[in-house]
């Protein structure tokens, strides 16, 4: 085995020299798009082109209008059309005779399997929609969803969409406290949650945790999943299965304006308060339907698609639920962790269900590399024909490993750049039409325009690093931040004016228009492809009784891209200890979620601040990553740095 690894390493090292990979001929032959004429066609008339793509949806009344840019940056798309998201995802497929098609091959952590058909989803969605109505939820009311990766999470989202109640899904890895806060911010009327969630063989009592913090909602609907004995049901609590059973089986889809909000999804920004990113119906669905089909070269009759994300993130919303269902896709949905019950579970599932398309995050690929090729090689992956990544920059080494070991050098790899705010994929390669460059996402998709700018808004020369911007509205764009138009304008449209969207990523563009994305330029961390705010973690740490002050930075990390490092000063003359490290980590887990726990805590007597009192994060980053210190002359107290450096050396 050792011999094979060396061979592989040598082969990968050779491939590292190659900057450009043409799409494999066998793939191109059957590809939906084989050249760049679509890009050109869209470029001639972007609005008209998107208007054409909107025809892929079913409209109760067809829109005449595409983009309305009369009040920037409050853009609208297809505003005079009416439609329903759940009708588009379910009814029309069932009406077309596809009711028996599997929408999800679902696999539970314990190995149980459920085949979820389109007909079943439609039946359950109508009942759930009526159950929501029975419990006082109406059009425009926000409904919170805090569920693990079980089919009911899809039903819950589509039931909300059916009656025009925007959903607010919270990732299952967040703490109950985070859920409470998000319910409060979004003024949610009801919460759909679960008795317990399984993680690597253990069961977490979710309903009990939710009760312990108290939710500001009238009704809590509880899915019975693990059958936990201790699932407290109080006043205002209803069992999902009982509510659905009692509900009318038919619920006509609400005919909603294209700009009706479909969902809110909270995402981390550069302040402690998460941003309620608000998406609407017609434009968002048009964008995710087109991109899901063409970026993944989807043939719904023969493909089996597996996206390993969680529905609680935008990737799950757009490319597990809405995009795939709009295109009548058969998908694989897995409840568990990538290394449970064993490190080859993804590949076992690919073989078992015949997955042809696989979409994951670079951090997961790096974990697989560490676990070893043997876990991949055990499975027959010969049906795979396309691979994708999302969430963070992929280093060329990981790209090549994915291409070679998982894809057998037959499967194009699409490196898809986008954000919660963009709704859908914006920059990538179309797999049958464009060469791939490892570590470089690709070009703006048809209809999308991007540019790399200076702080002042001038385009930088090709090959030079600058700030990524999007220079034209697109249908899947966020419309505002929930209840906070000012913050929406201030965050994205103030720097360069209401026509140029500020992405927040540093990037470069080459002579062929390919964009490589380097990383965030603001105080947003990217740990394993999960977005987190330094300010949010800092305020969680500071809320611990023994902590005086904290500064959080993202330190470069080989496995997770970035990791959370916290510089902490303690109250009075308290001393740091291993117990206190554990206490603070647990405190962060309770306040935000396990994913936000600092990997390293560094005790500091003081934090380096400018004379105006701003924490110098750049210096902390230098320290945490072991670099020579840059200019410290603007510091209020330059000795602070010497003390901190001393601490780090002690540890090393
Ligand atoms: C979909 C999603 C968005 C941020 C984004 C950027 C980073 C996402 C990337 C990528 C390089 C890619 N990012 N995809 N960086 N290459 N292919 O991840 O949304 O959670 O909102 O994060 O993630 O920094 O600005 P979200």
UniProtKB/TrEMBL annotation:
GO terms for biological process: acetyl-CoA biosynthetic process from acetate. Signal peptide: none annotated. GO terms for cellular component: cytosol. InterPro entries: Ac_CoA_lig, ACAS_N, AMP-bd_C, AMP-bd_C_sf, AMP-dep_synth/lig_dom, ANL_N_sf. Keywords: Acetylation, ATP-binding, Ligase, Nucleotide-binding. The lineage of its organism: Bacteria, Bacillati, Actinomycetota, Thermoleophilia, Solirubrobacterales. Residues 536-614 form the AMP-binding enzyme C-terminal domain. The keyword Nucleus does not apply. Residues 97-473 form the AMP-dependent synthetase/ligase domain. Residues 37-89 form the Acetyl-coenzyme A synthetase N-terminal domain. PANTHER family: ACETYL-COENZYME A SYNTHETASE, ACETYL-COENZYME A SYNTHETASE 1. Pfam families: ACAS_N, AMP-binding, AMP-binding_C. Its EC number is 6.2.1.1. The keyword DNA-binding does not apply. This is Acetate--CoA ligase. GO terms for molecular function: acetate-CoA ligase activity; AMP binding; ATP binding. Belongs to the ATP-dependent AMP-binding enzyme family.
């Amino acid at each position: 085995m050792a011999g094979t690894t060396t061979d592989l390493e040598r082969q990968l090292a050779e491939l590292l020299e190659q900057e450009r990979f043409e799409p494999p001929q066998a793939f191109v032959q059957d590809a939906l798009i084989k050249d760049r004429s679509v890009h050109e066609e869209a470029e001639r008339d972007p609005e008209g082109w998107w208007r054409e793509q909107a025809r892929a949806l079913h409209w109760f009344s067809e829109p005449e209008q595409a983009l309305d840019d009369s009040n920037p940056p409050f853009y609208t798309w297809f505003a005079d059309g009416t439609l329903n998201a759940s009708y588009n995802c379910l009814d029309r497929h069932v009406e077309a005779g596809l009711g028996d098609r599997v929408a999800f091959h679902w696999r539970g952590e314990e190995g149980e399997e459920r085949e979820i058909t389109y007909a079943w989803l439609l039946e359950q969605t109508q009942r759930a929609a009526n159950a929501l109505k029975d419990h006082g939820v109406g059009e425009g009311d926000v409904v919170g969803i805090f569920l693990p990766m079980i089919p009911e999470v899809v039903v819950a989202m589509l039931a909300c969409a059916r009656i025009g109640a925007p959903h607010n899904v919270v990732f299952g890895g967040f703490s109950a406290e985070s859920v409470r806060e998000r319910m409060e911010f979004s003024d949610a009327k009801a919460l759909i949650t679960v008795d317990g969630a399984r993680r690597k063989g253990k069961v977490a009592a979710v309903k009990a945790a939710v009760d312990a913090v108290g939710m500001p909602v009238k009704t809590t609907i509880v899915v019975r999943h693990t059958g936990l004995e201790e699932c407290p049901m109080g006043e205002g609590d209803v069992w999902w299965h009982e509510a659905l059973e009692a509900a009318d089986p038919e619920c006509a889809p609400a005919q909603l304006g294209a700009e009706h909000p479909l969902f809110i999804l909270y995402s981390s920004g550069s302040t402690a308060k998460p941003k309620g990113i608000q998406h609407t119906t017609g434009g968002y669905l048009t964008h995710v339907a087109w991109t899901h089909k063409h970026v993944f070269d989807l043939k719904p009759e023969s493909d089996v698609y597996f996206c390993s994300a969680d529905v609680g993130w935008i990737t799950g919303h757009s490319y597990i639920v809405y995009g795939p269902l709009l295109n009548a896709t058969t998908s694989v949905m897995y409840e568990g962790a990538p290394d449970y019950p064993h490190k080859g579970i993804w590949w076992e599932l690919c073989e078992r269900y015949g997955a042809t398309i696989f979409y994951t995050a670079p951090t997961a690929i790096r974990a697989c590399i560490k676990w070893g090729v043997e876990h991949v090689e055990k499975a027959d992956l010969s049906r795979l024909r396309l691979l994708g990544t999302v969430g963070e920059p992929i280093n060329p080494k990981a790209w090549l490993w994915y291409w070679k070991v998982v894809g057998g050098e037959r499967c194009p790899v699409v490196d898809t750049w986008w954000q919660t705010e963009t709704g859908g994929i914006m920059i990538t390669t179309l797999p049958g039409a464009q060469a791939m460059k490892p570590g470089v996402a690709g070009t703006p998709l048809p209809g999308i325009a991007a540019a790399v700018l200076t702080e002042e808004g001038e385009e930088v020369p090709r090959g030079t690093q600058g700030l990524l911007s999007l220079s034209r509205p697109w249908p899947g764009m966020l419309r505002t931040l929930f209840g906070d138009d000012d913050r929406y304008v201030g965050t994205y449209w103030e720097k360069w004016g209401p026509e140029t969207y500020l992405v927040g990523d540093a990037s470069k563009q080459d002579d062929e228009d390919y964009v490589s994305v380097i990383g965030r330029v603001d105080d947003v961390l990217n740990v394993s492809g999960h977005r987190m705010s330094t300010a949010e973690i800092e305020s969680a740490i500071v809320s611990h009784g023994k902590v005086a002050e904290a500064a959080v930075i993202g330190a470069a990390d080989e496995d997770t891209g970035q990791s959370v490092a916290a510089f902490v000063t303690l109250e009075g003359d308290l001393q740091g200890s291993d117990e206190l490290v554990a206490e603070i980590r647990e405190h962060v887990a309770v306040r935000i979620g396990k994913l936000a726990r600092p990997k390293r805590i560094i005790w500091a007597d003081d934090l380096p601040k400018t004379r105006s009192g701003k924490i110098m994060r750049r210096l902390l980053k230098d320290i945490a990553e072991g670099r020579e210190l840059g200019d410290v002359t603007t510091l209020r107290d330059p000795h602070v740095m010497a003390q901190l450096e001393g601490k780090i050396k002690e540890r090393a």
